[in-house]
Amino acid sequence: MADAPTSAATSSSPPREQWTGQIGFILAAIGSAVGLGNIWRFPGVAYENGGGAFLIPYLIALVTAGIPILFLDYALGHRFRGAAPTALRRAAGRAKGLLESLGWFQVAIAFVIGLYYTAVIAWALSYFVFSFDLRWGDDTAGFFTGEYLRTGDPGFSLEFVPGVLIPLALIWIATIVVLALGVAKGLQRVNVVFLPVLIIAFAVLVVRALFLDGAADGLNALFTPNWAALGDPNVWIAAYSQIFFSLSIAFGIMITYASYRKRRANLTAPGLVVAFANSSFEILAGIGVFATLGFFAFQQGVDIAELEGLTGVGLSFITFPAIVSQMPGGPVFGVLFFGSLTLAGFTSLISVLQVVSAAFQEKFDLTPRQAAIRLGVVSAVLSILLFSTTTGLLALDVADNWANNIGIVASAVASTILVIWVLRLGPELRYHLNSVSTFPVGRAWIALVGLLAPVVLGYMLVARIVTLLLEGYGGMPAWYLGIVGWGTILVIVVAAAVLTGIRWRRPPDDFTPWPPYPAPRTAEAGKGVRS
User: Fold this and answer.
1) Cis peptide preceding 515, ω within 30 of 0
2) Largest CA distance in the chain
């Protein structure tokens, strides 16, 4: 097989950063995928959508949408060697502006998510410290929203909350340092250390939970199948939604990560490892969370169904502290739980912000250190102004809902349609995956990415938009949702347009993809060397 070509532009460019090997890439990709949602979202979603029966649509969604779109991101990043704007621009042919703007749309989503995701990690870090003396007391809800966050009414405040501001600043300092160190010395090294610690700590937590009174009731509540739920389309949508949001796909992360792999690097087999490792951790989280909830229900003398706060922020910062206060050895359990939240959140955070850093490095010809410091300082200031005040919780909740359910889903729909149907790159990307990988993908992969994914995700997007327009969100005023929610989408769109219009310091267009894709006249389109 021919070596990768070297053009004038390639030789004059600084060498591209790379992972040190396959293990480093896999750990970093798993660290990105395993985040807060694995711990606080999957267990509740599974319980509310058929229990054990939910695993059937969940696994089908993993195989038919999650893994195919993951492979799409890998192929784009690895073949076109860049962050989302660079890779999509190089893939676009004559439609450079359109595809580059999609890349910057993904970067802007990552930037927004980074601003508020950092705040949640700061909360987890605070609660890690609070666990040592169970500082939240008996009224965990009152402590979280009152004494700790000092939550006010919907609006905009500059009344800072020191208990949030200080850990938030510490998280931003750590993030800037990691990004400044680069791919191998920063992102990879953090994941090599943090991911094993996370898995061990959470495994210890799960084992402890299994020996609590009522744990079996909790597991029965989670895994007892409700087969009738399989006939509900909303259950299937919930499964696709969970897979989609938990794998870090369709908003630039895996495009960027794959671009740091060597030219001769297996893509599909590591992709399967990442996907199934993520799902395995979600199931482990479900076991730990519901064994613990079973204990809580036993202590309260109620059924699991009568408990409140089974997902999200409520589960982590209200329900779990209440459980920790009642169990033997509660402080140790709290330290393990909130330590795991902090580690899972941080490994995901640095992957989100690397999307932004890499894109700016390529657009403005910056070093990793320059990009990390400049973007990090701006991001930290915005994050502190928006999310360390008394209105931070409400702003975070609304921004998260719009960025994820509108921004990321819209990005995925646009990516699959533009790449597969407009540019017709499916055969070439399939060829690329098969040329460098040990696990070949067939023509069905193109159909899954180009047909099933946009249909399912398009339905999710339209349904969510209609719901938000007709019903609002969280009982908040329409003016507030308009400014924070729809305003977030407007900012993302405007940022994408502006960044697309700015001139590149080092134009990325003098580029030759490798391996060369044989023309359809000389080789069957899409047929890889191992297919």
Assistant:
1) yes
2) 73
Q: Is 164 within 8 Å of 123 (Cβ atoms)?
A: yes
Give, to the nearest 10 degrees, the angle between helix 233-246 and helix 268-300.
120
- For residue range 254-301, list pLDDT tens digits in order: 999 999 999 999 999 999 999 999 999 999 999 999 999 999 999 999
139, 76, 3: which is closest to 449 by C-alpha?
A: 76
Query: What are the distances in angstroms from CA 274 to CA 62, 254, 268?
Result: 12, 11, 10
- Does the predicted model carry a pTM greater than 0.85? yes
Give the count of beta carbons closer than 10 Å to the beta carbon of residue 158: 8
Collect the ranges in the chain with pLDDT lower than 50: 1-12, 521-531
Q: Is residue 6 packed enough to be buried (19+ CB in 10 Å), middle (13-18) or exposed (0-12)?
A: exposed
Report the alpha-carbon distance of residue 444 to residue 307 in Å, rounded. Answer: 43
pLDDT tens digits, 311-349? 999 999 999 999 999 999 999 999 999 999 999 999 999
- Among residues 356, 204, 259, the alpha carbon closest in space to that of 29 is found at 259
Q: Which of 132, 106, 148 is nearest to 254 (CA)?
A: 106
Please choose, from the candidates 64, 44, 46, 88, the residue with its C-alpha nearest in 3D space to the C-alpha of residue 457.
64
Cα gap 395→484, rounded to integer Å: 7
Closest C-alpha among 530, 81, 528, 33 to residue 270: 33
- pLDDT tens digit sequence for 453-512: 999 999 999 999 999 999 999 999 999 999 999 999 999 999 999 999 999 999 999 999
Residue 108, token pair as written in the block: 């802007």
